[in-house]
Amino acid sequence: MKLVIAVPHPFPLWRVPEWLVPRLESDFSDLHVSNVASFEELPAAVADADVLVTYSLREGQLARADKLRWIHSTMAGVGPVLTPEVVQRDIVVTNASEVHGGAVAEHAFALLLALAKQLNRARDMQREHHWGLDTLLADRPAPRTVIGATLVVVGLGAIGRRVAAMAKAFDMRVIAVRQDPARGGENTDRVVGFEQVDQVLKEADFVLLAAPVTETTRNMMNRERLALMKNSAYLINVARGALVDEAALTEALRERRIAGAALDVFVEEPLPESSELWRLKNAIITPHSAGLNEKLWELQYNVLAENLRRFCSGEPLLNVVNKARGY
Questions:
Q1: In the predicted structure, residue 139 carries a pLDDT above the cut 90
Q2: Residue of 269, 276, 298, 315 marked active site
Q3: How confident is the model at residue 149 (pLDDT cuts 50, 70, 90)?
Q4: For the whole model, what pTM was predicted?
Q5: Which of 98, 288, 306, 310 is catalytic?
Q6: Whole-number percent of the chain with pLDDT over 90
Q7: Any catalytic annotation for residue 269?
Q8: Of the four, 44, 271, 288, 326, which is 20 to 30 A from 159 by CA?
């Protein structure tokens, strides 16, 4: 059986470590692994492959891959892998949502606490050597407690489920928004569908975006929905930049129509220097770093190895993507 790895990412952490290929071939004696250095090499390498591990594809790259039966994405978001030919063909797609979910959830909750406690403003005052207790108390929003606050979690996947559990540990009220609310959700007080998102936004003290980009969620936090939020509420986005109308959010932050926002993802990355978001004191910006994890490739290996075992024995794979829904 042949497995092709194509992960030539510009960011070193996302690249395959040297130990991974020898370990795969040691653990699976009938497996031949080809690790390609560029996407240009992919069409030839995958022509006789059974399995492909990658995070992105270009249309036509699988034209000769007649044997290919399974694609594993090393990312949680699979949009870059779902080319028309992948969607149309009988190829199973799995993702790494459970690999990244824990680290992203930690980051998301850290951002929530930073907003609540106004740590960004305290850091600004530290740089100025300013003991600003009176300033923190006089300005709005002032630092607040999260106990008893309402968190609206949009998306109840690997990230949303973990954040809901963290919020419950802090005695927060949790409302989840998910595609199929009948499935419910642990550590939630209420679960609603997307048709009720406007209603629950009005109740939120914190809104966390942890959903994939779909026709329903794309640009969902637009000017109209931001206007539904309390002026004391905060928005946190650790999902995808495309979920937010950045111009509308910038305006809402500038005019203090919402209390603040913490953003790890953006429509354009890196965030352009010209973006006003950099200069807004009620915004916290992190450089798409929520998924950073020193254990990343061990976790990746565990998921891939378990699915390889299942693939070889004909068992159902873990983390299978619904190609029609895109997640």
A1: no
A2: 269
A3: very high
A4: 0.95
A5: 288
A6: 98
A7: yes
A8: 271
